Amino acid sequence: MEEIKPVIERKPIILSGIQPSGSLHIGHLTGAIKNWVELQEKYDCYFTIVDLHAITVRQNPAELRKRTLDLAALYIACGIDPEKCSLFIQSHVPEHTQLSWVLTCYTGMGELERMTQFKAKSEKYTSNVNAGLFTYPILMASDILLYQADLVPVGEDQKQHLELTRDLANRFNFNYSDTFKVPEPYIAPVGARIMNLQDPESKMSKSDENLKASIFLTDSYNEIVKKIKSAVTDSDAEVKYDKVKKPGVSNLMTLYHIATGKSFVEIETEFIGKGYGDFKGTVGVAVADYLKPITDKYAAIRKDENYLKEILQKGAEKARNQASRTLAKVYKKVGFVSFK
Ligand code: TYM
């Protein structure tokens, strides 16, 4: 009689990452890590610290090393469970750059020229418009496709990169045969684009020189309260959610919603007849309270570098196991000789 093999149900896969290129701000939490934490139970998760991406902009080596470990500690402090997820440093898994080369040969120059982040960064870092900045989205596509990710939780600014990833996966699958899972982006309905506190028409960004523009996850309680007090709003005094007419107030309402779980209608009602002074004071305290457990936990975890390195080493091993399988398939399909 033929043996009946048990059907092993595999969990769907998530991959996401953050660059260790500056201090993490609250947008990284609401646009990315918070959603990772919420999804980690139901998915097989790979969370990476994308140091290869970070060197597309000049980095101080000692700083980069430090920030990479800072970021690992922050992932855990925010609630990523290293027992459930693979947490790893991108450069520890060489398959990322190997797949990237193959996919580079399947990407049109025009596709890369259209990327808004390339345009923005090449305008900002005029003295260093390097080829890595240009091919960056291909490396990002490789990060995702190596793990056969079903879902990629990111903030809104990564949407275009995800579209290119899907195009490359479809192109490769069409040219050879099914090789890559075509991933879906996961962009949270609220918090996927937190705006700059001093210029609410632009997104909060870690490379902003004005420190008052961002709430960093390492800011002290008082700094957070102060920064929100000095956030730019508008000249009327109505707390109302309207992203177009009242971007500053809407941004603070978003942060307040994330910190307290209150709906926008509840927030509007709470502040009827009250001025922006009251509003900003309340939001500041709520956001500082929300971040405090993370900051406290972070300080404790960051101290233990051996623990962090152990987790990152284990994470890289698990990641390589999956990544090498996908790369072997790709190499075979494109026609590279293998002796295995
Ligand atoms: P990075 O490092 O700029 O940002 C990390 C994540 O944070 C989100 N984010 C925001 N969300 C809401 N409001 C903001 N103001 C805000 N700023 C940043 C980003 O959308 C992102 O999800 N290319 C990526 C890193 C990357 C990656 C990947 C992501 C490399 N490979 C593979 C996912 C999958 C980047 O530069 O993100």
CATH class of the largest domain: Alpha Beta
Question: How helical, in percent, are the residues?
Answer: 40-55%
CATH architecture annotation of the largest domain: 3-Layer(aba) Sandwich
Number of helices: 13
CATH topology of the largest domain: Rossmann fold
**SSE order in H/E notation?**
EHEHHEHHHHEHEHHHHH
3D shape: globular
Instruction: Look at the structure and name the CATH superfamily of the largest domain.
Output: HUPs
Given the helix and strand composition, which structural class is it?
mainly alpha
> N-to-C terminal Cα separation, in Å?
33 Å
**Heterogens:** tryptophanyl-5'AMP
Proportion of β residues?
5-15%
Quick one: biggest sheet? Answer: 3 strands, parallel
Task: Report a brief summary of the structure.
The protein has helices at residues 26-39, 51-54, 61-77, 95-104, 109-113, 116-124, 131-145, 159-175, 221-229, 247-260, 264-270, 276-303, 305-334, and strands at residues 13-18, 44-49, 85-89, 151-153, 184-186. The protein is mostly helical and 340 residues long. The mean pLDDT is 95.
Structure, described:
By secondary structure, the chain is mainly alpha-helical. It folds into 2 domains: 13-191 and 304-334, Rossmann fold; 211-300, Tyrosyl-Transfer RNA Synthetase, CATH 1.10.240.10. It is 53% helix and 7% strand. It has 13 helices and 5 strands. The strands form 2 sheets. The chain has a 3-stranded parallel sheet with strand order 1-2-3. The two termini are 33 Å apart. The mean pLDDT is 95. Bound molecules: tryptophanyl-5'AMP.
